[in-house]
TrEMBL record:
Any one GO cellular component localisation term in the record: plasma membrane
Keyword Ribonucleoprotein: no
Keyword Transmembrane listed: yes
Stored PANTHER family: SHORT-CHAIN FATTY ACID TRANSPORTER-RELATED (PTHR41983:SF2)
Gene that this sequence comes from: atoE
Keywords, sorted A to Z: Membrane, Transmembrane, Transmembrane helix
Top-level taxon in the UniProt lineage: Bacteria
Transmembrane segments: 21-39, 45-62, 74-97, 109-133, 145-163, 201-223, 263-281, 324-343, 355-371, 432-454
InterPro entries attached to this UniProt entry: SCFA_transpt_AtoE (IPR006160)
Name of the protein in its database record: Short-chain fatty acid transporter
Originating species: Persicobacter diffluens
Length: 455
């Protein structure tokens, strides 16, 4: 009975959910309206103020740092897709799948991998869990085995509800940098004062929160996997011939040389090792992309199959190319109109020492709905909650974690970060996101309880 009601709820959500592009457009329109209602000076004409907002939106669309980030995301998608099509990687994935051949248990395996890898690094977890879903789908499809492909995709995306409390959390890493807190609030924090990752990422409260959340998510996906058997789908694997006719002669033979592609991969690997051993770059989009490039190049049969895989992957980046700039434009509107600070201070001013962390989580979740950028959100919203924490004598690590929880929580309702996963798997967003609502509710309950009782 409960499952039937739940399925009707999922069907209703599919009907009302817009496409990711329309979602971005609706948020843009709403941002203009809110900015006009909240931020317009009384002595300024409506046309002049609207022109300023339009300029802020336009400059946000083409902001160089944001465009750099868009290219990084597109490369993660294309290189990850190319890696998934390599013979060796396919063999490794099949080795894992054959040890967990039951499609009802598959979502649990995927959510464990996704949450663990996203806790280590969000980009790594998002790409590789998406690749695992794709290959699992191809495997079950080839065997004519019924499976729930959107549920598996949601299991992969669930890692984005835990990433900001992990080792790649933007806010948690920034407050651990020497001088950052002093730069934000010089009256509160000294030049050498930091909030180390021992106080945030590796605190007992945060680790407990992460483990409880993973356990609850595993229970949800295990229940759904047992109840919903899914359908027999056709997901075609893309394979490339080792040798092709018309391969040319002379220097063109290098394109089909297995040895040459491996030599190139080895050269790039040596360069990569030299760089990361001498400079503390860490895991970031650039290092992940270069690592994916080396793996894809080395795992493919030759350069020609590698380039074929890249060309096949290019249509999957269309959503990222077109939709990401819209969110950067929204960021421009929020910054120029003061909406971001308005949202933040509005919640924080209502807080007491007991409720401030919870209200900080709510404000961060609301802002993330419009501006899904952990780092950018922290720079503008962080000083507000830190100042409030200082005035109410709330431990600073607690409100920093609260902002991180809010930022990652509404990822489950925001399609921004799902675009790479949707591109790799081919899952429709209307099929994926109804399964995200229970994940959102589970995470909201765990984060709320943790902020009141043990963080």
């Amino acid at each position: 009975m409960i499952f039937k009601i739940f399925k009707q709820f999922l069907s209703a959500l599919k009907w009302v959910l817009p496409s990711p592009f329309n979602f971005a457009v609706f948020l843009t329109i709403l941002s203009f309206i809110l900015a006009f209602l909240v931020g317009k000076p009384a002595d300024e004409s409506a046309i002049a103020y609207f022109s300023q907002l339009a300029l802020a939106w336009f400059e946000g669309l083409w902001s160089p740092p944001f465009l750099t980030f868009s290219v990084q995301m597109m490369l993660i998608l294309v290189l990850g897709f190319a890696l998934a099509q390599s013979t060796l990687f396919e063999g490794l994935i099949l080795f894992l799948i054959k040890r967990f051949p039951n499609p009802r248990v598959a979502p649990v395996l995927i959510v464990l991998m996704s949450t663990f890898l996203c806790w280590l690094n969000w980009g790594l977890g998002l790409v590789f869990s998406a690749l695992l879903v794709r290959k699992m789908g191809e495997y079950f499809s080839a065997g004519q085995i019924p499976f729930n492909y959107p549920l598996m995709g949601m299991a992969a995306y669930s890692g984005m509800v835990i990433w900001h409390g992990g080792l790649s959390g933007s806010a948690l890493l920034k407050v651990a940098e020497k001088g950052h807190l002093n730069e934000l609030l010089p009256a509160v924090f000294g030049p050498d004062e930091v909030l180390s990752i021992r106080q945030t990422v590796f605190s007992a409260g945060n680790l407990c929160t992460s483990l409880i959340l993973i356990f609850c998510l595993c229970g949800y996906f295990f229940w759904m996997g047992r109840k919903d058997k899914g359908l027999v789908l056709e997901i075609h694997a893309k394979r490339f011939a080792k040798w092709e006719h018309g391969k040319g002669s002379g220097a063109a033979l290098l394109e089909y040389s297995a040895i040459w592609s491996k030599v190139l991969a080895l050269i790039f690997l040596i360069l990569f090792i030299l760089i990361i051993t001498h400079f503390p770059l860490g895991l970031n989009p650039n290092t992940i992309n270069f690592g994916l490039f080396i793996l894809a190049l080395g795992f493919h049969q030759h350069l020609h199959s590698f380039w074929q895989a890249l060309r096949k992957a290019m249509p999957a980046v269309t959503d990222v190319l077109i939709q990401f700039p819209f969110y950067f434009g929204i960021f421009g509107i929020f910054k120029a109109s003061g909406l971001l600070l308005w949202f933040s201070t509005g919640f924080v001013e209502l807080g007491s020492a007991e409720s401030l962390p919870f209200l900080s989580m709510l404000s961060a979740g609301l802002v993330n709905f419009f501006i899904p950028s952990g780092g950018g959100q922290w720079v503008l919203q962080g000083p507000v909650i830190l100042e409030a924490a200082h005035q109410l004598a709330v431990p600073a690590p607690k409100v920093v974690l609260a902002l991180a929880y809010g930022d990652e929580l509404t990822n489950m309702l925001q399609p921004f970060w799902a675009l790479p996963l949707l591109g790799i798997t081919g899952i429709k967003p209307q099929d994926l996101f109804p399964y995200a609502v229970p994940v959102f509710l589970i995470a909201a309950a765990v984060f709320s309880l943790s902020l009141f009782f043990w963080v």
